[in-house]
Structure formats: C-alpha cells, structure tokens
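Build the 3D complex.
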Amino acid sequence: MKKLINSLIVFYSLKFAKTITYMLQVSEYRPGKYLKWFWSTDDFSKVITRQQLVKTSKARAIVLGINLGIAIEILTGLVIMFLGANNKIIGGVYYGAALIIVYPIIWSQGIGLLVFMARVLLINPDEKKKIEASKKTFSKTKATKIAVLGSYGKTSMKELLLKVLSKSMNVSATPGNMNVAISHARFANKFTGNEEIVIIEFGEGAPGDIAKFANNTKPDIAIITGLSPAHLDKYKTLEAAAKDLFSISKYVSSKKVYVNLDSKETNKYVTEKEIGYSEEGALGFKVSEVSNSLKGISFTLSKGNKVLNVKSKLIGRHQIAPLSLVAALALQLGMKSADVEGALRETEAYEHRMAPRDLNGATIIDDTYNGNLEGVRAGTNLLKEVKARRKIYVTPGLVDQGKLNKQVHNEMGELITKANPDIVVLMKNSATNFIKEGLHKENFNGQLIIEDDPLHFYSNLASFTANGDVILMQNDWTDIYK
Amino acid sequence: MEKIAVIFGGKSAEHDISIITAISTVIKPLELTKKYLVVPIYITKDGKWYSDQKLKDINRYTKKDISETLKKLKPISLSFDNGLELLRQSKFGKVSKEKIDVVFPSMHGTYGEDGTLTGLLEMANVPFVGCDTAASAVAMNKVLAKKVAQSSNINVVKYESFNKVDFKSGLDKISDKVKSNLKFPVFVKPAHLGSSIGISRAKDENDLKNAVELAFFYDDLILVEEEVGNLIEVTLPIIGNHQLTPAFLEKPLTKAEDFFDFDTKYLQGGKKGSKGAKGSQGYSEVPAKLDRELYRKAEEVGLSVYRALNLSGISRVDMLIDSKTNKIYFNEVNPLPGGLYIHNWIKKGISNTEMVERLVELAKDKYNEKNSINTKFSTSYLRQF
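Done.
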C-alpha cells in the first residue's frame, strides 16, 4: 500500500517527467527495455536511487516535451469538464476527469512509442548513412587497424595498447566505452589522416554484431580478450556468443587473430587460424620470474636473446597475458624494447577496473565495472594470493546472465569461497540466493552480510575497514536491475 | 537480533560531542554489522529522554534545530521491572514497552561519563558498554584519579586541589597556596570535565586568579598542577576488561603553551599549521614517534593506570612525558574517548564495526561476571527488633 501511495505521489507530481526520462536514459532509449522496467517497478519513488538523470539536450527535450504534453492534456481535461458542467458535452465532467487521471499511463507508454518511432523513422536512417560513410574512411586509412573484442577485458586491452603504442606511434582509439557501429562511424569521422595505428573496440550485444562491425571497419589485426557468459539475454547460449566473437576470423587474415587462452571458454573454439596468448607468453615470448602484489606485477619476457623486463602497476595474474601480448605486438610493430618497457611501467589500473586505492590503511580494489564470471575468477584469484589482516569480498552479482543466471551465480559463490575471504557482503537482489548456494556448497565459514542498501554500505565503507584489510568490490548494479 | 540502546546527548558541556560520537562511531557501525537493532535514546540538555528512529539522523542536529523533531515526540520513561525497558506513551495514552538487551552509553562529561548513568544501568541490571559506576566516578574526578594512581606508585605531576569552600574563602588564599607549593606556569582544570573545557594555563598570579574563576564556573572542584617542562603529551586508548588491548600511543601535535583546547580539538579540525594524521580530535602523530624504550614504558604506564583505576570496556589514558628526564606522568583518564578514538584503532587494525562489536561483547562478559557474584546474604538482624 505504501509503495502504491509513493508511486501515485510520483505520478501526479513534477517528478513524473524526470522519473520517466531517467528510466529511458538508463534503458539506453530502448523502448522494450524501458517498458519492461516500467511494468516491473512497484515503487516509483525508489527508481532514481543510484544515479541521477544526466541532463543531456535529449533528456531535457524529453522532460520538457512530457511536461508540456501533460499540461495540454490537463488543460483539455479541464475544458471538457467545464463544458460538461455547463451541459455542452454530455458526461463531459467524467470524460475530462478521466483524461486527467490517466495522464501517467498515456505519457509513460506514449513516450516509449514515440522513442521507438523516432528511432525507426529518424535516428536509424541517419545512423545508417553515417555508418555507410565511415566504411570508406576505414577502407582508405593507411593505419593498421586493431579490433579489440571479447566478453570482458576489451576496454583494458584497448587502453593498454593505446598507452604502449602511443610511446612511438601516432595512435587513435575509440573513446570510453563507445563500441557500437555508430560510435565507430563517429570515431572515423574524426580521423586526421596521420594515424599509424587505429584501435577499435567492438561491443557485441547480439548475434551478428561482430560481423557487422568487422564489415564496416575492416580490421588488420583482432584480439579476442576472453569469452564468458554476458549479454545472454540476446545470445541465449555461450556457444552463440562464441560463434559471434570467432566470426572475426572471416574478416581478418589468418594468424592475425590473437585469442586469450587464459579464458577457460575460448580454448574450445580456437582453430589454427587464430594464435593464442596466455599467462605463459605471447607471440613466441615466454613469461618467467613473476612477482605479483597489490602494488603491481612484474615478470620477464624472453624469446631467444631478446629479453624484456615488464613492470606494471596493473594488479592480478590475469594481467600477464594482455601485458605480454601488447609487449610482443609492440615489438612486432617496430617499437624498441626500451620504449616498450618504459611505456609498460606507466600502465596502471583503469577507473573501476581492478583499481586499488587506500582507505585508512586498507586497500580497496575497485572492480565495480567488472560484470562477468572471468573477471570474478581473476579477482578471487588475486584475493586468494594477497596477504591481508582481513579479506572482504563485496558484490551484487552479475547481470544479463540469461538462462545461465543460476549456474553462473552458483559458480561465483564457489569461486568466492575458494578465495577464503573473512567477510562476504552481498547486495540483496535476485542473484543473492544463487550466490549463497555456491558459498554453502563450498562450506564458506566466514561472516556473510546481506546488505539491502548498497549506497548505505558504500558510503560507510570507512566504518567497515581498518589498516591491513583488503576489500575487493566486484560489479555494481544500476537502478534498472533488481 | 539483539536490541542495543545507544544513549547520547545529556546534561553536559560535551552534549554536542556526544551526538557526533553516538551517531558516527557507534550507531552507524552497529547497524552495519547487521547483528543488532539499534534504539537511539537522546537526552536533551535539560534532561528529557526521547527515543525514536528519527533521532539517528545527524542532519536533524546539524542542519536543523533538534527541538523541531522533539516537538512531535513524547519523552519516554524507564522501567526496571524486567531488566531495562523503555516505556512509550502513544497519542491515545496507551503505554508500550520495549526491552533493551544491551546499553551503549555514548555520553561525555557530567551525568554520562561520570558514573551517574551507569549507576542507573547497574540498578536496571542490564549489560552496558564501558566502565562501571565506581571506576567512572574515579576516572572523571581528576583529583581522585591522581590519588588512586599515586597509591599504585604511578607518577603524577605536583598539584593542588580546591573546592567551592576554598573558592568562597577568596582567590588570594588559593593563590598563596599555589605560590608556596607549586611553580609557575601552572594549569588550572575543572576536576570533572573532559574535552579540555574550562582549562587554562597560568603564567603568573593574575592569570591564575582568572583561570580559577573560569574553572569554578564549570565545576565545584578544581585542580592546579605544575607544567611539565620539555613536554611530550601522549595518549593511549585501551580496550578490555581483564585482557587489555592497547591502541597506538598517540601524540597530539601541539605545544605546551598552545595546549589542546576544546576549540583546537573539535572546532578547528586540528592543530593550526601542524602535519599529521587527522583524527577525531584533530591532527596527531599515530603511533607517536618515541624512542622504543620510552614508548614501551609509556604503554606500560597507560596499562597500569587502566588496571589501578579498575577501568573496563574502553578508556583513554593521557600522559605527560618530560623528554629530558624521560619521566612519564599520568595526567588524566577519559572513560569514553570522543569518537572512541577510532582513527587510532583503525590504524592499529581494528575497524569501527569490529570495535563496537567487541565493546558489546565486553559489556556482556562484565555483566555475566558481575551476575555470578552472590548478592544475597541471610542474617537474623531484623529479628532483634
């Protein structure tokens, strides 16, 4: 009852337009996703919790449009009621009142339809044109084009390549997590013609995406960073996701597709067309003398007489494979050893991706942008390896795991237990019980805390930690997930 | 879940500090453990008791006037029939009871830290965090605490104490006694207050008279003590009942003539121009950079004071060190350090949540130990009448 009252207060207040626009924005303006969220929400006063509406020009226009529309609707309703009261329209009072009362339904559903129509009639044709134009730009460029794809680790690999190759070459990379066809087109539009290396992140989300991206950008080299259950709401099975990723081999020359073999699942799909890289080495370079701590990782890469001393502030053993590949690739592209070593020394964790920070002597490993099982495996391996007064693992679980949801979260619970944490904090949601099952299966004997309010926990983290603690925080759910 | 009442505010000059201690370092961490149900009890400056979940919100004290919230609430009363129970009266006059399992007093100074509140809790026969009534009363009386420490062969600075009768006899008499027995400069302190309220440094007789007047404004018993030369001021937070765990010895970064007063501790957020760890009470050095042997001795003195005064739960022992002679003097004890001195414990490797959990466990241990003692004794005394 309280939730219904809270929702009605939102519906019939100025918060309505903002709330609806926020839901659209977080749903990436996808009507299906937005409507699914809308109809599964039981308390609209709690919709805007974790983030705020980003006031882009699009968002402002939608808020203004909804408010204007509602104002017109209320005014029309009042006029009908007035005419009804003066016997000019039979039943006008009721029709007018009904028109006013139903405005939240009309606008919450109507806006979904409007966005859908705008996408079909305006945005899609415009984007199509831009993508077609970018195909020519990608074909014309003399730069070596490197495509980075995979269920996880794409952005880190892209940033690593950019950091190291930029030391000696003119390198351009797709910004942030702009990794779909229209982002590639906008990226190509900014080419200066001086690029020697172009790095393009492929953000697959549904079957056929990789082929489409590859067809547009025509990469010379491709790196598959890993395979893990992700976007299974669209792919349905891991096999379908793998098939999509490995379709890149049709568009790139043989032996120019590099695959991360540390990723358990990729091994099943590698053929002689692709070349593997792993914790053991890359492109003929062998890894030895590994030293791993919360301050970073160091190891030696050697191939015949060629020896590279790799040092990086990136943390975790799972970084050995990408660091090795980037080093070997940089040498292959003509960089000097000293430049490669120097550039690698400057590499450090990217924001929210295994990024360590100090909190009153405790180390917080912020891996909240990690949203896949392989990332969990890497994180829990690190947690197992480090020395700490107390080890604390914090997670809400993973999203978009489709039919594998239970299985993935069970395995997640098992992986967490194997890291032997003293405390596990689970943010309460639909995945919690599945993780708990995994914890119980492996006989977790530490303290388990189920937190209802993630924001409350994160903002009070300092109360929870002390000198010498290590806290690994993996993944973070936005308001759309429950 | 166990129900823990956190009592804060109170009729004390340290009322406001108590609110911060309670909400930031006691209530929030207790709730974060997910083991306890916290019942906030706020005592107003004029002594009325209120309990409502709204009183856990710091914004009601810092951004608004708390009286606005209290207007909508009814004061509670207590019942000792079945341990400690809070009695709440509804708008329709119906009284409901809420049983409390453990009490976490978060009050500083008079009527809170000085044993009066714990006396009430002992009567109610409910476990509570911190020192018992007798230890609190001694600890919060700087004169008495020094006497107890002296009897255990712990060094204290040369001092004189004066009560209201002495004050009424005239400032000249006090001044004469100080001049004949102590050397200037001296410190004048109210005997029962913490947080450096009412403390002054007097360089001469004129300063002394002003300082004595100020101290008597706050208290009916005052202490005048010699200043320690080549001073290193250190403090040692300790937890435990029998098995004691010291935190790090901490050194406030301050000069003797610019001592750690209330303003420096709480309002300026630390010592002007000093560098060091920012704790709940400003900038300090944690752990204090002392010669290893001196550090060990100071820690030993701190623990000896804790035992001599029969403290339990948590306390903080302040000491003064003459850096030339390496002589360590016991200065005073704080039975409930502001903010639990949590910045120090965190450095030591005990988080705020662990700290409150430990204190609750220590409270229960002490309660069980006390309840195992027989208090019934049959005599035929009354039959003779």
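Chain A has a mean pLDDT of 91.
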